[in-house]
Design a protein that fits this description.
heterodimer, A: 507 residues, alpha/beta, Ribosomal Protein S5, domain 2, Rossmann fold, Helicase, Ruva Protein, domain 3, 3 domains, five-stranded parallel sheet, four-stranded mixed sheet, 23 helices, 40% helix, 18% strand, B: 367 residues, Arc Repressor Mutant, subunit A, nine-stranded mixed sheet, three-stranded antiparallel sheet, 43% helix, elongated
Chain lengths: 507, 367
């Protein structure tokens, strides 16, 4: 007899529909799996047979064929175990095939019949909803994650028997609802708030401007000056994720198996800080079986590279293309995977190898060693960083001061307002922020009044600013004018943007 | 002319002890004899030990004397042996002067005053500013500026002298056709055009640490006054100073802060009797009656500045200050301080020392 069960796989960070078809017919007893399967899917044969036996079913001594269609897409992961078992039960006639309509099934089986958690449930359920699925049988451990998607009934099962009994109608399971189980979203940036940052007026200002226009930023300062702490505060001043963004970001984390709080969508923007020994593959994503890398895990958030010159040159250079395209495309012989990678790049570095420059009574570096250190960051990469700020070592009076600085929440209000101005400006276009403007858009939105233009031209010539530097200054000046709520870019906006330009490091 | 190729061989062959080349050549009578003599004959010449003789023999073996000389001639590089009338007078005066000088561009003018400006390669912004100021002011007063084209004080004073339209000469510790340090390429090219590059080492000689102290004796010899801008107590600059004193040159120092490690050398020299100088006028009076400084008054250029910029300019020092410190010191709002600062940079009065750190780049009298 023939049966078919709907299940889902993951490709990139999106789900795709897989039909698990089972056929039981007379003939030599055998159990065949087909459908372009990777190793772990082929191993399902043993898991399914043993789980069925240990759940109390007699494994049919017949010719069993399982096919995962479409047959031209590589299937990976252990999520097909449960649908295979259910398909066999349906083909055996144990389960009414009508019950399988508009129902998707995912889950890994253990030998005793228990159902274990899998990665990527969220994007699978999202995809299921799009294809018209009404019910979704998921491992109990993934129930909360699946329930983040509205409009689909989530049936949590902890073993094969529960799933079978539910489908037979003997012991129906109540759909999982978030209401009874909802908890407060945990704050993954707990303890980070600009109000704890003492002094650092210049760095705070730079941080705010960067956040407003989503400008990439480089922080330069002595070890222990507080660069990492400032960087960690960036998600607290960026607007919280919108519902759509939250679903997108949570999907990426679900695929990577990194969803920490599986009862809630991620609300705060991600902050990813890979160690400087990270490989280029871990940075971009990939591997034989592609997984999202650091740049995708920081999608819609912040990618923070501490000790930036210590990263291997190659690892840094691979950032250049995703910084332009805001996504990364990885080609493997099973197909091409696209991961989103729209992040704000924040780098931190010392001013020189010892960290004391420009205090020459402490700095032990020579001029050439200092240059060599700065030169580890390539020009093309520095060209993509609009803002460069100095993070000062704190004076004792700042350390001892008990005065609280302006809090993240207050700064966030200004950031939200400034980003709204940009959204209105670019509505209908492809971009959202000033930092993403191309030369046409710069020309259109950063027009200068004749007097200001004249001053700017003179300044550029005197300070020997390159063409790249010119557009960076204009983009940042646009953001500063937006913070002030002004249509026209004024001289003081340009001056401040010029100060934030990383001209010193560019040498 | 025929003899010249032997002279060239003797000067250009890679070898230690450059100070002894001339003495040995004189002792031998001719460089041709040195080229042709056997080991025993070489050893009979005073000043040639056995190992020195071996060294001469081993090195002349791979030296095709005709081809090497032809190759050299085709490069258009000057070769001035010690008896040549073009050989700088100041250099000939000192003992242990080079057997010959290789040059690109001009040679220092014997009739014009000449100063050497030397100091730390790893200098502070204060040193940078003073080196530039001394270089450009002295050059515009017609004084030749000699130095070693190194990073820091040396190169900066020479660049400033050239920018002021004056004469400058770089003495290298490598072949004249090699630009060292490489990052001073711009200065090297400009010196070739507007001044001169000198060395006593053969072409293609690579820069080596042991060649530099001997080079320093040429720098000091070519100057009337040696100005030390910033130097640590133990440094290459102090070797130059020792050489200058041996050669009877006047040594002047630029005072710095007593707590600054970069000033320890200058202050020690000052205590030992070096003359402190604070402006080009001071140096002129040291240069003696021929170039009396009495008539020249050193005056700061004056400039009118708006209120904000004046406040910020007054706060700036030759020591780097961060924008935060500047805004605190002036009591101005950060944004306004930054604006004024950028205006000052555009006017060339302030400069960025490191990311977010600024210094005074030029001294002016604000009105």
């Amino acid at each position: 007899m023939f049966s078919s069960v709907l299940s889902f796989g993951i490709r990139g960070i999106e789900g795709f529909c897989v039909n698990v078809e089972a056929d039981i017919s007379d003939g030599m007893p055998m159990f065949e799996l087909v459908g372009y399967l990777s190793g772990e899917v082929k191993e399902a044969r043993e898991r399914v047979r043993t789980a069925l036996k240990n759940t109390g079913y007699d494994f049919p001594v017949k010719r069993i064929t399982l096919n995962l269609s479409p047959g031209n897409v590589r299937k990976q992961g252990t999520g097909y175990d449960l649908p295979m078992a259910v398909a066999i039960l349906a083909a055996m006639g144990e389960i009414d095939r009508e019950k399988l309509n508009e129902t998707m099934i995912i889950g890994e089986l253990k030998l005793n019949g228990d159902v274990g958690r899998i990665n990527g449930v969220l994007p699978m359920v999202i995809c299921g909803r799009k294809t018209g699925i009404k019910r979704c049988i998921v491992p109990a451990a993934n129930a909360a994650e699946g329930a983040m998607v509205n409009g689909v009934e989530i049936i949590p099962v902890s073993n094969l028997k529960e799933a079978a009994d539910h489908l037979k109608g003997t012991v129906p399971i109540r759909p999982y609802t978030r209401d009874g189980n909802a908890v407060e979203a945990s704050d993954n940036n707990a303890g980070c708030d600009l109000k704890y940052v003492r002094g650092q007026a210049a760095a705070r200002r730079g941080l705010e401007i960067a956040a407003c226009g989503m400008h990439n930023m480089l922080m330069v300062g002595a070890p222990g000056a507080g660069k990492s702490m400032l960087a960690k505060c960036i998600p607290t001043i960026l607007p919280p994720l919108s519902d759509e963004e939250a679903l997108e970001v949570s999907s990426i984390y679900s695929v990577a198996g990194l969803l920490k709080d599986d009862r809630n969508l991620m609300k705060e923007r991600p902050f990813v800080s890979p160690h400087h020994t990270v490989t280029d593959i871990a940075m971009t994503g990939g591997g034989t079986y592609p997984r999202p890398g650091s740049i995708s895990l920081s999608h819609r958030g912040v990618l923070f590279l501490d000790e930036m010159p210590e990263f291997s040159r190659y690892t840094l250079e691979v950032l250049r293309q995703p910084l332009e395209d805001r996504k990364i495309t990885i080609a493997r012989n099973f197909g091409t995977y696209v991961y989103p990678a729209d992040f704000m790049l924040v780098g931190a570095m010392n001013p020189c190898p010892c960290g004391a420059y420009p205090d020459l009574s402490k700095c032990t570096c020579t001029e050439p060693s200092r240059r060599r250190y700065l030169n580890r960051l390539s020009r093309p990469l520095l060209d993509r960083m609009d803002i460069c700020v100095d993070v000062m070592k704190l004076g004792y009076d700042d350390m001892l001061s008990t005065e609280m600085s302006e809090s993240s929440a207050q700064v966030r209000k200004r950031v939200i307002r400034t980003q709204e101005i940009q959204r209105d400006r670019f509505s209908g276009g492809k971009i959202l922020f000033n930092s993403q403007m191309n030369s046409d858009e710069i020309h259109k939105y950063c027009a200068l009044e004749p007097k200001v233009k004249e001053w700017f031209a003179g300044a550029l010539e005197k300070l020997d600013v390159s063409a790249r530097g010119y557009s960076k200054i204009l983009k940042v000046a646009r953001t500063i004018a937006d913070i002030d709520g002004l249509k026209a870019i004024r001289r003081e906006h340009l001056a401040e943007a010029m100060q934030l330009n990383n001209s010193y490091i560019m040498g | 002319m025929e003899e010249m190729k032997y002279e060239y061989w003797w000067a250009a062959m890679p070898r230690a002890y450059p100070c002894r080349l001339k003495a040995v050549a004189e002792e031998a009578g001719s460089t041709r004899r040195l080229y042709e003599a056997g080991k025993e004959e070489l050893q009979s010449i005073e000043g040639i030990s056995e190992s020195y003789a071996d060294d001469i023999i081993s090195k002349r073996k791979d030296w095709d004397i005709d081809r090497e000389y032809e190759k050299f001639l085709s490069m258009g590089i000057g070769f001035i042996p010690w008896y040549d009338e073009r050989y700088p007078r100041r250099l000939k005066e000192v003992s242990g002067h080079p057997f010959a000088i290789f040059s690109i561009g001009r040679l220092p003018d014997d009739d014009k005053p000449s100063v050497a400006i030397v100091g730390s390669r790893n200098c502070s912004e204060y040193g940078r500013m003073t080196a530039r100021n001394f270089g450009s002011e002295l050059a515009s007063l017609g004084v030749q500026v000699v130095s070693g084209m190194a990073y820091g004080i040396d190169g900066l004073s020479q660049s400033a002298a050239l920018e002021a339209g004056g004469d400058s000469f770089g003495v290298l510790g490598c072949g004249v056709n090699i630009c060292y340090p490489r990052s001073n390429r711009k200065l090297y090219d400009r010196l070739k055009e507007q001044g001169g590059i000198l060395s006593e080492y053969g072409i293609y000689t690579k820069p080596q640490g042991n060649l530099f102290p001997a080079r320093n004796r040429i720098i000091s010899a070519l100057s009337d006054v040696l100005i030390v801008v910033e130097a640590r107590e133990v440094s290459g600059t102090m070797i130059t100073v020792d050489m200058a004193l041996e050669q009877g040159r006047e040594v002047a120092v630029v005072p710095g802060r007593i707590t600054d490690p970069l000033s320890t050398g200058c202050i020690k020299l000052w205590k030992q009797g070096a003359v402190p100088v604070t402006c080009a006028g001071d140096v002129l009076s040291l240069l003696g009656s021929g170039y009396d400084g009495a008539g020249i008054k050193y005056r700061l250029p004056t400039m009118e500045l708006p209120d904000d910029e004046r406040k910020v300019y007054m706060t700036l020092e030759p020591y780097a200050k961060s924008v935060g410190e500047i805004s605190d010191a002036t009591g101005m709002e950060l944004r306004n301080a930054i604006c004024a600062l950028v205006e000052l940079c555009i006017k060339g009065l302030a400069g960025e020392a490191s990311t977010g750190y600024y210094v005074r780049a030029k001294e002016i009298r604000v009105v």
